[in-house]
Amino acid sequence: MHNAGNQSRPKSNEAVNSICADNDLTREVNLPEARAFCRTLARSHYENFTFGSWFLPRQLRQHIYNLYAFSRYADDLADEGNSPAENLRRLDDWQRQLLQCYQGKGQHPVFVALMETINTFAIPSQLFLDLLTAFRQDQTTTCYATFDELLDYCRHSANPVGRIYLYLFRQTDTRRFILSDTICTALQLTNFWQDLAVDWRKGRVYLPKEDLQSFGCGEKDLEQQSASADLRRLVQFEVDRTQQLFDQGKSLVALLPRQPRFEVRLFIRGGEAVLAAIRRQHYDVLTRRPVLHKWQKAKLIAKTWWQDRIQVNATG
Q1: For residues 260-291, b (16+ Cβ closer than 10 Å) or e, as one string?
Q2: In the chain, which residue ranges form alpha helices assigned H by DSSP?
Q3: Treating both helix axes as pointing N-terminal to C-terminal, what angle do 58-77 and 125-140 enclose, rounded to 10 degrees?
Q4: Angle at Cα 166 formed by Cα 242 and Cα 269, nearest 5°?
Q5: CA 56, 51, 43: angle at the middle one, nearest 5?
Q6: Higher local confidence (pLDDT), 41 or 182
Q7: Do 108 and 31 contact (CB within 8 A), yes or no?
Q8: Over the Cα atoms of the chain, what is R_g?
Q9: CB within 10 Å: which end of the chain, N or C, has fewer?
Q10: CB of 142 within 8 A of CB of 203?
Q11: What is each CA distance from 100 to 29, 103, 104, 131, 301, in whole angstroms?
């Protein structure tokens, strides 16, 4: 339920490249071709593609592929230009095509497929526009002064993904949206703390300046091979604050029907497992990136599935 990451579009994939080249179409694309484009793009990034798991209802999988392809392609447009100015121009063009899609004029294969999803579930354009706002912000902002500023970024980068997901299951009331926002923000923050060293090497710092100052930290702490005592205390503070957000959002699970309930519970537990990995490293996220191994992910999925089955049997 958080944004897709920074891996590049698979240039060597013939199924994708046969339809279009870098956002310039050479021919009209029909709906089956557009669906195949989005499906191929999503599956080629399966390591980041949680929504495309086999746990999802079959009738929703293509729609998930379409939604993922929109975000994945936008991420590539924001990452593959020669300068931030060029990336912004590319994102502006992507937004123009999005708005045309809402007028029934999709041409790019992503938007030909996405029109079907938008029309089927009545997904408002603002959610996609918010995601594009976050991609633009990545071009212009490399640090945040306050935690509130960071939360505002999450409102655009992460929260729309959760709301779109709820649209697919027609769970679109205000209460569910607010709880989903809390979970998605927590997932985004978890990713920031997990990738602190990776982002630092890219020139990005997601630890708010006010928190760095409060804990006596600065750039010197982020430049080290291992975390200082001050930085560890700061990361612990952020991890605890993020856990509180997960705790606040967990009541969403009980408000959902079985299928999205399982997925949302899995999202939460996956995020909490990463926070636990950070704790096991004593909050030193510089020495090595805290990750979940395949066996840990498999165990997490199995445990969540089994507990969900027990709950279903208990409630009849």
Answers
A1: bbbbbbbbbbbbbbbbebbeebebbbbeeebe
A2: 14-17, 31-44, 58-77, 84-101, 109-121, 125-140, 147-157, 159-168, 174-194, 196-201, 209-214, 219-222, 229-249, 258-280, 294-315
A3: 30
A4: 35
A5: 105
A6: 182
A7: no
A8: 20
A9: C
A10: yes
A11: 16, 5, 6, 17, 39
Q: State the residue for tokens 């293509």.
A: 62
Q: What is the dihedral of CA 220, 225, 227, 229, to 10 degrees?
A: -70
CA distance 249 to 253: 8
Residue 65 identity: Y
Token pair 């009545």 in the structure block, residue: 122
pLDDT digits (tens, 9 = 90+) for 239-278: 999 999 999 999 999 999 888 888 899 899 999 999 999 9
List the end-to-end C-alpha distance of the chain, in Å, as a whole number.
29
Contacts of 225 (CB under 8 A, 6+ apart): 286, 287
**What one-character-per-residue DSSP string does 138-186 give?**
HHH-SB-SSHHHHHHHHHHHTHHHHHHHHHHTT---HHHHHHHHHHHHH
Averaged pLDDT for residues 190-199: 96
CA atoms within 13 A on the CB side of 30: 1
Name the pTM for this structure: 0.87
pLDDT over threshold 70, residue 52? no
Please state, in angstroms and as integers, the Cα–Cα distance from residue 108 to each residue in 33, 90, 180, 211, following that order: 11, 14, 30, 43
- For each of the domains in the chain, give its residue range(s) and CATH number, in order of start: 1-140 (1.10.600.10), 142-296 (1.10.600.10)
CA angle 300–306–308, rounded 5-degree value: 100
The pair of three-digit structure tokens given for residue 310, joined into one six-digit string? 């027990």
pLDDT-derived band at 2 (thresholds 50, 70, 90) equals: very low
